[in-house]
């Protein structure tokens, strides 16, 4: 599944209502200012300082502008890299699922070859591969008797690798859900 462009995600009416101008008008203002030669941060800061655009909308307009002017591909970060993201809801409490992320033996059952770099229980863990090159953030968001597990795999070199890693992480999270649920079924109540 290809990453959608900014204009496919955020409708023109929403941009105009939130910022006071349509997207195309903002792009013309940015063109006139020479923003096609600026860095992402400079564009967003300029929109806030010179035009009073809310910070979130300034970032959003900047991404859309960069995509429209060929300065950035959909899904590309300001540093030129890409992220692959995947998530899965598991019908267990966060603490039980978190154990499967941070405990070496439990993690090896669903994600062999990855090491724990750091953890902030019971919400976030950073993982790395055996080479130490890949950096992964696993974030858990607790709900009523369930938890959403989201993975962000950053610093990917190109858009093609995003789809491959998304597939990898979807499968891994599927294994996590199965292992954690199976272990939970065997645990004494």
Per-chain topology:
Layout: H1 6-9, H2 12-19, H3 23-33, H4 40-51, H5 55-68, E1 82-90, H6 94-102, H7 104-110, E2 114-120, E3 124-129, E4 135-142, E5 147-156, H8 159-186
Antiparallel strand pairs: 1-5, 2-3, 3-4, 4-5
Helix pairs in contact: 4-5, 6-7, 6-8, 7-8
Task: Briefly summarize what is shown.
The protein is α+β, with helices and mostly antiparallel strands.
Structural description of this entry:
It is a single chain. The chain folds into two domains: 6-68, no CATH class; 82-186, 2-Layer Sandwich (Alpha-D-Glucose-1,6-Bisphosphate, Chain A, domain 4), CATH 3.30.530. It has helices at 6-9, 12-19, 23-33, 40-51, 55-68, 94-102, 104-110, 159-186, and strands spanning 82-90, 114-120, 124-129, 135-142, 147-156. Helix 4 (40-51) crosses helix 5. Strand 2 and strand 3 (124-129) form a beta hairpin. It is built from eight helices and five strands; from the N terminus they run αααααβααββββα. With 189 residues, it is α+β, with helices and mostly antiparallel strands. A five-stranded antiparallel β-sheet has the order 1-5-4-3-2, covered by helices on one side.
């Amino acid at each position: 599944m290809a990453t959608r462009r900014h204009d496919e995600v955020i409708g023109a009416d929403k941009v105009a209502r939130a910022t006071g101008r349509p997207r195309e008008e903002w792009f013309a203002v940015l063109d006139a200012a020479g923003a096609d030669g600026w860095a992402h941060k400079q564009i967003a800061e300029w929109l806030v300082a010179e035009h009073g655009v809310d910070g979130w909308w300034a970032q959003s307009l900047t991404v859309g502008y960069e995509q429209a002017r060929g300065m950035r591909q959909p899904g590309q970060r300001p540093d030129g890299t890409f992220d692959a993201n995947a998530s899965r809801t598991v019908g267990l409490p966060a603490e039980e699922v978190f154990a499967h992320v941070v405990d070496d033996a439990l993690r090896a059952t669903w994600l062999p070859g990855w090491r724990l770099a750091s953890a902030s229980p019971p919400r976030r863990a950073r993982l790395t591969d055996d080479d130490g090159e890949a950096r992964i953030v696993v974030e858990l968001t607790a709900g009523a008797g369930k938890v959403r597990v989201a993975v962000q795999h950053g610093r990917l070199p190109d858009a093609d690798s995003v789809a491959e890693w998304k597939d990898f992480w979807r499968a891994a999270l599927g294994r996590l859900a199965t292992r954690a649920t199976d272990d939970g079924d065997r645990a004494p109540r």
